[in-house]
Amino acid sequence: MDDLFEKGLAQRKATLGAEYVEKNLAADDDFTRPFQEAMTAWCWGFGWGDDAIPPKTRSMMNLAMIGALGKMHEWEIHCRGALRNGVTKEEIRAIIHVVGIYCGVPQALECFRVARKVLEEAGEL
User: Fold this and answer.
1) Which one, out of 28, 63, 114, 121, has a CA that is 20 to 30 A from the CA of 72?
2) Do 107 and 68 contact (CB within 8 A), yes or no?
3) CA torsion 6→10→16→22, rounded to 10°?
């Protein structure tokens, strides 16, 4: 588990940014730490640590799935990570179109609102 945690921590920092990850880890306490450690090992170490799918593709998959779930706080975090992993503005737009087709126009509009914020912060809009 320690190996997966270390692998996951490196991938998590590479995608979400070291500053963001360190801030989250510093805010851990006895109540949340076990989940942070498990999530880092499982999601980022086991899931993202598999080289079968490149980080850019994983980011695109995440945007589609998290957008479908309507978890917009996480969508915003992963939208920033997707840019860091090389996903383009045009690809983000196409992903949102797919979310709209399969999950409905209101959900696509939510994704566009959040994407606009992230893209403006990144100087892409």
Assistant:
1) 28
2) yes
3) 60
